[in-house]
Design brief:
single chain; 190 residues; mainly beta; four-stranded antiparallel sheet; 4% helix
Amino acid sequence: FGLLYAGSDDGLIHVSRDGGASWQRIDQDLPQHFWVSRVEASNHAEGRVYVALNGYRWDHFPAYVFRSDDYGQTWQRIGTDLPAEPVNVVLEDPDREDIVYVGTDHGLYTSLDRGDTFMAMHEGLPNAPVHDLKIQPRAADLIVGTHGRSIYRADVEELRQLMPDVLSEPLVALDSAVVRYDDDGGARPA
């Protein structure tokens, strides 16, 4: 309670740990003057926070995503393998702290290792800017908001099963959703 983060379109990021009574600037070690497109506080570790910076206003297109585990006192750049395109949103999975999603000007990416490496999640998604990401907790759906190309939904339940022990195996069968059986083959009475 009382932990707040604020980012601005001119690159300033502040944290308050007392409900907004006092604020501390925490962006000094980050690239300066870029639009802070997202500040995402962790659901798993109190001091962890993710920041996405967007430099398109300065014709500067590297993907800038950072993570701090100490309330923004020190930062680690993550997603260095992301393509050179502006980042609009970063989201930590509310159930699995190692899963991080990133929306850029050309798509959606996910990480299974807290942002050290990312992979594309483009199947069925148009090449459009991803501006917002939310997880619907009950359905385990990732809701993807794009700029002008609609809203998309991705089931992330199987993705959440990809734990390090599973990934180290040569072949794994994941649990799937329960499918209802209908013994009349779906035929309906006339």
